[in-house]
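The aim of this short unit is practical: by the end, you should be able to scan a pair of folded records and say something sensible about each. We start with the first protein, listed as its amino acid sequence and then its C-alpha cells.
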Amino acid sequence: MSGFGKTDSNMLPIAASNKDTNNLSGYAKTGFHFDLYLTYQLIPHLGIMLSVGGNMNSYDVTTLNTQYADQYTSHGGNGNLPAFTASGSYYIGQYLLGPCINIPAGTGGLSIEAKALFGLTTANYPGLSYSYSFFGTTISNTFSVKSASGFGYNVGAGLKYSLPGGLIGLHLGVAYGGSSISYPSYTSSYSDGTTTQTTTYNVPKAMSLAMLQITIGASVDL
C-alpha cells in the first residue's frame, strides 16, 4: 500500500531564545507526506504491518526572524539586525512495525482500519546562516546540525473501500506520528570577511516531534 498527503507540524527544530539551550523547537511549515506499507494478515481482521514513511517540510525562516528580532531588541540589541536564511528542508523518516486491524463496515466493500506502529525515526536539520554589516565589514555565521534518530511511533485510523474483485483497495486515513530525538552536535562557521573560524559543539539538542498526517492511497491485496 502507498499513501500520499500532507503533514502539519509545529514542534520541529531551533529554540527561540538567546541562550544555548539543550532543546530545539519550531519553524516547520506544512509539508508533504508519503508512506509505503506491507501488511500480513495473522488471523481474520488482525495483521502485522511494516511501514516506511517520510515527511518533507520547508523551514519557516520568516517566523524565526520575527522571533529573533523580538529577542534581539528585548535584550538590548540595536543597530543592524542580523537576518537568518535557511538552506534545505526537513526530511523526517519513520521505519515502523506493529499491529493493524481491518473490520468490515457492513456490505459493499467498506471497512474500518486502524494501526499502532513503533520503531525508528530519523531527522535532519536545515542549514541556517545570518550576516550583517559592521563598520563596512560583513560579518556572517553559518550553522549546521548533525542528523538525529530516536524512538518513534505512528497511530492512526481510516476507511478502506475494496473495488469489485477485491484486488484493489482505496484508502483514506488520518494518523499521528511522534518521536523524541536528539541531535548529537552542531557546527558554527564564523567569518569576518578576512578569516573564518569553524567550531563544532558536541552538545546534544533534544527535539520533540509531532505530526498530523492526512493521506489517501491505494493497495494491492494478494
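Turning to the second protein, read its sequence before its C-alpha cells, just as you did above.
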Amino acid sequence: MIRLVLACALISMVVFALLNAASVVLGRRQPPHPALAGFKTDCGRQPCWYGVRPGLSSVNEARLMLRERGLHPTRTGSVYLYYTGVAGCDFDLASSYPSDEISSIHVQKCSHLRLGDVLVTLGLPEGLHTASSRRFWILFAGGRVALQARDLPSWSAHAQVTDVWLIDSRLIIRHPWRGFVPRWRFCQLERRLPPGFC
C-alpha cells in the first residue's frame, strides 16, 4: 500500500513539474505589452517614460525626445502635452507653471495592460498609498511611480491597470505591499485603512 502511495506521489510530482516548466516556457514566449517599452527605452532609473524624467526634463527636451521617436502630441496646452495611441495607450506630460520642467507623466487607457506585466517590468512594489476607501495606488521608486488597477485591492496579476503616474514628488507609502492577498486578509493585516474599506 505504501508503495502505491509513493508511486502516485512521484508520478504526480513529475507531472506537476512538467506542467510548471511548460507554463514558464509558454509565458516567456508571450511578447510584453508594448506600453512597457516606455519604462525601458532610454531609462535607467524610474520614474522615466521614453527618456523623459519628471523633475529633470524640460518641456522642450521632452518634446524633442518624443519627436525623435516619431511621437507627436495630438493636443497641447500651456502646461501639458497630450499623446494618443502610443503603444496602445494615451499619455500626457504636465508641467507646473511657471516652471518649464515636466512635473508628471500620466499613462492611461492602455488596452490589456495587466498588473503582472507591470510587476515584471518594474519589480515588486514598495507599498500602497490610500486616498479614500475606493482609491488605492501601488507605489514604486520611492513613491514616484504610482499605478491604479481595477478591483484594487482584491488584486491578482491579471488585474487591468487603468492609470500609471510618474511624478517628481513622492506619495507617502501608507501600507506595505502584502502581495496578492484577498481583501479580508488585507483588512486583518492592516489596521490604518480608510473608513468603509473593510
